[in-house]
Here is the input.
Amino acid sequence: MNEWMLAGRSYTSRLLVGTGKYRDFEQTRLAVEASGAEIVTVAIRRTNIGQDANEPSLLDALPLSRYTYLPNTAGCYTAEEAIRTLRLARELLDGHDLVKLEVLGDTHTLYPNITETLKAAEVLIREGFKVMVYTSDDPIVARQFEAMGCVAVMPLASLIGSGMGILNPWNLQIIIHEMSIPVIVDAGVGTASDAAIAMELGCAGVLMNTAIAQAQDPVRMAKAMNLAVRAGREAYLAGRMPKKMYTASPSSPMTGIIGS
Here is the structure.
């Protein structure tokens, strides 16, 4: 798979995976390895990465020497909560500055609160964080985040944890066309075909957690997602045939037929 750039660093895998909802850290490790991911997200408010010295740490299962950690603000509902959480993450990870910002609007839909997200992003960027931002699929909002200095925009495919797949490919295509920073689908992926579709649209990558962690066989699903992202990217680069309404096109030539 072609290398791609994120915040000044190159990566090979375009699949980013979360580390929550697994049975234990061993299952997390096995699934992440099967996914081929190089970037893993970690919910600072829910996962131990050193906050509690008496509990197992994710750092033991997924060492920093092998993976790029992407601390996120899952569970935050105000800009202040999100800013405080990512400042803590920077302390725990010795100055780490690449982060995923999400500020949620309510506990029912987990839809992004754009007003609070914009407020948090402004402060975090000013403090030197490299902000990847979870957002709606609104192209105007995506432009705002790019203009203020976010390193990636991460529009939802559908609601977090819903598994509904990409519900509005048209808006995603507008965002992809207009952005000069990576566009990474985040939230709503349910199975491998959803990931492939995201990549066929031209997304730089796909981030997922529940689709893998809540599968009946998380490790096998992680492998499937790895293959789907790779296949979708190859299909995008190959360029699909045009769609033709009401017109058939034979797969074999109609001229030069033997015996005609």
